[in-house]
Design brief:
There is one protein chain. The protein contains 8 helices and 6 strands; from the N terminus they run αβαβαβαβαβαααβ. With 233 residues, it is of the alpha/beta class.
């Protein structure tokens, strides 16, 4: 594996150089509980107190996510570890009255359901369990039809999820993304958008179409009352 700066170093660089908040994404795969705790201690020391908690994807050599010994199986378990640290509870039982961290914890939401969930209702039940376990905001998977986001927020509110929900948006930049994004992220591409992309002569034209669609989505979401937009770039 090629070595590169880790999450903590990258976030610290962003905050130090640009003076903006960074939100590291923490995943279950590839990290033991102790390694996760060490990273959280470093983040806390550096004043990085926003995190997005994810299970993570399967390894490229695996067909599905396989948890390893000493690691979390689900995002809610990782969330609970961070919540415990916010209460001063650490893995090492010898640490009594440890420093209480103050992480603001976000989790992922899927307007078109997670690809492993049998249906949206069960997916929402899992999401509510994470919110009940102290998640403070939801960051959604990308979507290209705003109505799916509106319906998702309504469904969340109907089952008692009231935390802020941040829409995730991505500009299409090539024809191949029509297939890749649909397959990898289980998202639908509206017919109007896909037809416009397919009519493009090159990737430059595709990017123009994708950018304009993104701007239209953004304007409509802001008019709907959304205060924060997240762009997948």
């Amino acid at each position: 594996m090629r070595k590169r700066p880790g999450t903590v170093g990258i976030c610290a660089a962003f905050m130090n150089h640009y003076q903006v908040d960074a939100v590291p994404h923490l995943i279950c795969g590839g990290f033991t509980k102790r390694e996760t705790e060490d990273a959280l201690i470093d983040l806390d020391f550096l004043g990085i107190d926003n995190v997005l908690v994810l299970r993570g994807d399967a390894e490229k050599t695996e067909s599905s996510f396989t948890p390893q010994p000493g690691r979390h199986h689900y995002a809610i378990e990782l969330l609970e570890q961070i919540y415990n640290m916010n209460q001063g509870i650490y893995i090492d039982e010898d640490i009594k009255s440890g420093r209480k961290t103050d992480f603001c914890i976000g989790v992922a939401g899927y307007p078109e359901k997670h690809f492993e969930a049998p249906n949206l209702e069960i997916d929402l039940q899992y999401l509510k369990a994470k919110v009940d376990a102290s998640a403070q905001y939801i960051m959604t998977q990308m979507f290209f039809d705003n109505q799916k986001f509106f319906d998702f927020v309504t469904a969340c509110r109907n089952i008692g999820i009231s935390v802020p929900t941040i829409p995730g948006l991505k500009p299409l930049t090539s024809k191949k993304q029509l297939t890749i994004l649909s397959r990898v992220f289980n998202v639908d591409i509206p017919t109007e958008l896909s037809n416009n992309i397919l009519a493009c002569k090159n990737d430059t034209d595709c990017e123009k179409v994708g950018t304009e669609w993104l701007l239209q989505q953004s304007r409509e979401l802001i008019a709907y009352g959304v205060h924060v937009l997240h762009y997948y770039t």
